[in-house]
Specification:
The protein is built from 7 helices and 7 strands, in the order βαβαβααβαβαββα. By secondary structure, the protein is of the alpha/beta class. Strand 4, helix 5 and strand 5 form a beta-alpha-beta unit. InterPro entries: Formyl_transf_N, Formyl_transf_N_sf, GART, GART_AS.
């Protein structure tokens, strides 16, 4: 049985590419990306999807809000969820999606498809550095001798930011000679692996 996923992106789409590659090399068996949705028309990840013959959609928050005074972040969340529901997917993967999903988005699925998982990759260990700039914050704390390492987690998405059930974690070493750029590169390489592992874990359980 095919396990269908929707991937939400905002930018370059390197995590998306890791998923595409893992499907093509059969590491993710019976997994299909049904649709890639971006909140930005300029996201290069859309080109990656098109090259792999994957359907794409763009649903910009800014554009949506500008069209009507009745449009809010809450109604955007509902509309985004309705778009995704058209594809009848088994899993939603946030892969560099830079908008906090409102409660209305989560409610649309809990009311209509409660068994569907929504997962996010966050570049910090559970309880550390929720929200934006997590890698930079870890790097600065390392320089101040507050931490000796950092890490990342894949977690289920709930209303509270970066606080859902943790599916897997991976520690990331930080070295004295690191720059922020070298640390970010180390994170990104692990992100690609961890996100694929989380999808494999969920898709395998469902079959």
């Amino acid at each position: 049985m095919t396990f269908k996923i929707c991937v939400l992106i905002s930018g370059n789409g390197t995590n998306l590419q890791a998923i595409i590659d893992s499907i093509e090399n059969k590491y993710l068996e019976n997994v299909k990306i049904e649709v890639v949705i971006s909140n930005k028309e300029t996201a290069y990840g859309l080109e990656r999807a098109k090259k792999a013959s994957i359907q794409t959609r763009v649903f910009s928050l800014q554009s949506y809000l500008s069209k009507s005074s009745e449009h809010t972040r809450s109604t955007y969340g509902t509309e985004l969820a309705k778009i995704i529901r058209e594809y009848n997917v088994d899993l939603i993967v946030l892969a560099g999606w830079m908008i906090i999903l409102p409660a209305s988005f989560l409610k649309e699925f809990s009311d209509n498809k409660p068994t569907l998982d929504i997962i996010n990759l966050h570049p910090a260990l559970p309880g550390q550095y929720p929200g934006a700039h997590a890698i930079e914050r870890a790097y600065n704390d390392f320089k101040d001798n507050k931490i000796t390492h950092s890490g990342l987690m894949i977690h289920k998405v709930i209303e509270e930011v970066d606080a859902g059930e943790v599916l897997l974690t991976s520690e990331i070493p930080i070295y004295p000679e690191d720059t922020l750029e070298t640390l970010e590169d180390r994170f990104h390489k692990q992100e690609h692996k961890s996100l694929v592992e989380a999808i494999k874990l969920i898709s395998t359980k469902s079959n």
